[in-house]
Amino acid sequence: MPALRSPRGRTAAVLLAALLSCAGPGWEAVNEQAKALHAEGKDDEARAAFERALEIAKGLPPDDSRRAMSLNNLGEFYRSRGEFDRAEPYYLEAVHWRERLLGKDDPRIAESYRNLASVYYSVGRYEKAAEFYRRALDVLIAHRSTDDPEIGETLNNLALQEYLLGDLDDAESHYRRAIATWQASGNADDTRMALSLSNLARIAADRGRYDEAESMYREAADIWSRRLGPAHPDVGRALQNLATLYRDTGKYDEAQRLYERVLKIRENALGPEDRLVAETLNNLALLYRQRGRLAKAEELYRRAIAIQEKADGVAPTDVATTLHNLARVLDLEGRVEDAEPRYRDAARLFEGALGPESPELAVVLRNWGRMLDAAGRADEAAPILARSRAILD
Description:
It is globular and about 70 Å long. The protein has 19 helices and no strands. α13 runs antiparallel to α14 (275-290). The model is unreliable at 1-24 (pLDDT under 50). The protein has helices at residues 7-22, 27-39, 43-58, 66-80, 84-102, 110-122, 126-143, 149-164, 168-184, 191-206, 210-228, 233-248, 252-270, 275-290, 294-308, 316-332, 336-354, 359-374, 378-392. With 393 residues, it is mainly alpha-helical.
C-alpha cells in the first residue's frame, strides 16, 4: 500500500504534473507517439519519446501507475533491440513500483515478473529467470483458473529455465502441466501447444526416449504447419529439432536433409542475415564436423559468426558457442594460431555473460588448454587447464 502524503505534498505533486502537462503534450500522447515511432523503426526518436514520457510520469503523484508503465515500456524497448543490460534496470524499477502500488500478489504484477525473467533468460542468467517466472506463476495460479493461457505460457518458460539448469525432473513436470493447460483450455491445436510439445520432446531425447521424442517433434511440426503454413519459421524450428535428434542418433543423411530444408525456410522467410539462419548454420556445421567434413564445417561456422556479429537480438552466449565451435574445427585441423583467438574470445564472452564459474567457460578453457598442451606449449596450457578444473571440481 502506498504511503500517505500530506495534503500540501499532494497539492505540490498535482501542480507539478499540471505544469508538465502545460509545457507540452501529456503522457498519453507522448507514450503513443513513442510506440508509433518504435513500430516504424525510428528508434532514436522512439527512445527520446519514451524517455520524455517517463519524465512526465515522474512528475505525477507517486501512486500513479503511469510511472511503472513508462519504465516497463523503456525496458521493452531495449529488450526488443537486444540491449538486455539496458533493459534490466528499467524492468527492475517497474517491478519495484508495481510491488509498491499493487502488492506482490496482484495479478497485474505478473507481467513485470515475466518481462524481467525474459531478460535474464536472454543473457543466460537462468536461475534469476526461473526465480521471476516462479513469482509470476504463483501470482497467476492464485488468481486465475488452471486453464488460463498465461499459466501455460509461464509453465513453459519456467520449464525451459529448469532444463537449462539441468533440472530435468522439474522441467518435464512443468512442460507436461503446460500441455495439460493447453488441452484443458481447448488449445490442443495451438502453436503454444506445439512449443511445449517440442520442448518436452527435447527432454525425452536427452533421456534416451527417442521414439517418444520423434513423435512429439512431428506432432509439433504438424501443428505449426497447419496453423501457419509449411514455410513458416516455426515449422523450421520443429524440423530443426527433429534434425538434431537424427544427428545425435547417427542418422546423418536424414539430419542433413532436414537441416538444409530448415535453412531454406529461414532464409526465405527471415532473410539470409537473421540470427535464426545463423543458428541453423551452426547446427549444420556441427553435422559436417561429425562427418569429418571440416572445411565445410569451418565455412558454415564463419558464415554464422558473420551473421551473429551484425544481427539484432543475438545473445553473447550464442556468439560464444559459435566461436568455440569454430575453434574446435580449427583445432582439429591443427591450425593452432587460428584457433587460439577464437577460444580466447569465446571464453571472454562466456565469462562476461555467465560469470567466472560457469561450466560453459570451463569447457572452453579445457579445450583451449588441451590444444596448447598438445602443441608443446605446456607452460601456457597449465594455468588455463588448472582454472578449468577448478570450475568443474
